[in-house]
Amino acid sequence: MTSQRDAVLEGTLEAEQLHSELNANTIARVPGTAVDIFSVIDSRGINLLFQKLGGLLGAYLNFNKRGILVTTERTLAIQRFTAAHELGHAVLNHRAGIDGDDILTRSPFGTQRYLPEEVAADTFAAMFLMPEYLINEVATRQRWDSASIQQPAVIYQMALRLGVSYEALVRTLTKYKILSASRGRVVLDEEIKSIKRGLLGNRVLPPDWRCNIWELTERDAESVLIAEPNDFFVIRLREMSSAGYLWNVQQAREAGFSIVADERFLSAGSEIGSDVERRFTAQPTFTGQKDIRAVQSRPWDPDDIAEEFRVKFDIARPAIGFTLRHRMEVLAA
Ligand SMILES: [Zn+2]
């Protein structure tokens, strides 16, 4: 009988092993951004199917061919964690089985006892989606230090960039001792809705607060953001308006972003006539992958580009039906 500690170790080692085996472009399209878990599953030759599963989150199937089922009825972060958990069952050579909501609430790093196979798959999922090196890369890019990572608003923005839930990230940061156990408990109690409300201010009132609110700055340039159609992006960019340069988001509009607010703020401590912060609040009206570019130029000389801000958006809609690989196999058979 495997002990809880052995199961955690097994899941951790297997996640590290798979990270070292895969090439960087399979793990994420841009290194240092969210693990592309659905592509990783595809790359292992495992069929991935999204469908309504009643109250279940996912299942690992192992009949003639290995397969993973993921519910269509939960957020992208939960779908991604479920897919990683089921991949854990596959790479750890577990038996077929189904999973419910308990994979989200139990902590493999806590003191309560659970089935060793489930502990190993949970640990695999957490370590595969949130390896310590990736957390460090995101923090370095964003210039978040160990003090700022204690703040719920920062943890929430990091969770978005890793494509995981706030709760899953808090548990993992506690496991890495980036948060102390007591700080972890405090930040888990934080109401995320108030963080979201603070980011949107009075600009927009979303129909409900299940959507995510991303705060983007120049530090997100050239990254890949995996988001959902209902999400809002609050984009804060420095604008050299005193020199006549203005951000132009026409291309983002043409690509399918609806700009729901467009504001200018004097940077803190700045004098009249100096740089301002331009703040766009945008919502995608498209799904799929798009490269979006905004440029800062003078309206009378659009070719003189002072700065450019480019981000890849992957707006995922919960997929229904077999994945592309499976469809191709069926067609080829
Ligand atoms: Zn399981």
Folded structure, characterized:
The protein has 333 residues and is α+β, with helices and mostly antiparallel strands. It folds into 3 domains: 4-129, Arc Repressor Mutant, subunit A, CATH 1.10.10.2910; 134-190, no CATH class; 210-315, Sandwich (Immunoglobulin-like). 38% of the residues lie in helices and 26% in strands. The protein contains 13 helices and 13 strands. The strands form 3 sheets. Strands 4-2-3-1-13 form a 5-stranded mixed β-sheet. A hairpin with a 2-residue loop joins β11 and β12. α1 (4-21) runs parallel beside α6 and α4 (76-91) crosses α6 (116-129). The site of zinc ion has 6 residues, from α4, β4 and α6. Residues 85, 89, 97, 99, 118, 121 line the site of zinc ion.
What strand line-up does the widest sheet have?
4-2-3-1-13
> Based on the structure given, which CATH architecture of the largest domain is correct?
Orthogonal Bundle
Distance between the termini: 42 Å
Number of helices: 13
Number of domains: 3
Estimated share of beta-strand residues = 25-35%
Unreliably modeled segments: none
CATH class of the largest domain: Mainly Alpha
Shape: globular
The description of the largest β-sheet is: 5 strands, mixed
| Protein structure class | alpha+beta
Mean pLDDT over the residues: 89
Helix content, binned percent: 25-40%
Radius of gyration: 21 Å
Number of strands: 13
